Fold this sequence. Notes:
Blueprint: H1 6-20, H2 24-37, H3 43-62, H4 65-79, E1 85-86, E2 89-90, H5 91-107, E3 138-139, E4 142-143, E5 160-163, E6 181-184, E7 192-195, E8 200-209, E9 214-219, H6 222-225, E10 229-231, E11 234-236, E12 243-250, E13 257-260, E14 264-272
Antiparallel strand pairs: 1-2, 3-4, 5-8, 6-14, 7-13, 8-12, 9-11, 9-14, 10-12
Helix pairs in contact: 1-2, 2-3, 3-4, 4-5
Amino acid sequence: MAQLAPSVRAAFLKGLEEFNTGLFFECHETLEEIWRAEKGHRREFYKGIIQIAAGLHHLTRRRNFRGTIHLLERGLARLETYPPRFLGVDVEGLRAGARRLRDEVLAQGGAIPPATADLRLRGSPGQGGSGTMGGEERFLGVDRSFLPKIVYEEPVPALRVKRLRSGARLPQRATPGSSGLDLYACLEGSQSLSLGRDPTLVPTGVAIEIPPGYEGQVRPRSGLSAQGVGVTFGTIDSDYRGEVLVTMHLFGSRESYAVQDGDRIAQLVIAPVVALPVEEAEELSPTERGAGGHGSTGP
Length: 299
């Protein structure tokens, strides 16, 4: 899934926070801006949340049960096509909460009960005008615990991989607990490649798109290292789109080794990167170690 642009992501998170704090009208306004600009598959998702927020606004501010039911139904219909988790949102939980509220409102007969028709919002200064529930246990006969919440967890970005040749194999983990993805040799037209002491570039037949804020680390496989077959540690930046090449060589007493097409030759580890700004300094803060280098802390 493509990453959200920083400005869109900021507005999206702001809208979710407004929803969860009862600022339903404000949530509607915030998300409507990114909904209007969206042309892709996320458009209906934003609209579904907007309509549920509008339904809650109808309930908490306008005291309109029929409007609430109508908007909740429309929002649910739009969210129905999305997976249980989308853009970090627990969509299934939101759908369940909206259905539960809809059923509770329907149980009120779709009209404002006379006993609660004159209810007003109570809460801290400034909250009432934004539609928050304040300290009331019930509003218009509806238990406020029925109001849905949006549960958000930062989504894990995907590593996008493109096959450059038909025989290329996608990187994959050997076990669920493996931190590295195995990289495979792709030697179409030549089924083997002999290694020597000098570095040799071994093609993998794939190019990758690493999400911003991450890097790729090409690391040796311990099984090959034990045989005297080395891999030079390499870094793949997030803006690199060329073929992933693995630099291999022989060391120790190893005299020969032939890489075969499809062999596992290295590991790819994706790691976060912190882009710290560089500042020139006349002095650095002192430490107990100071300028002590190799072996300064003991054998």
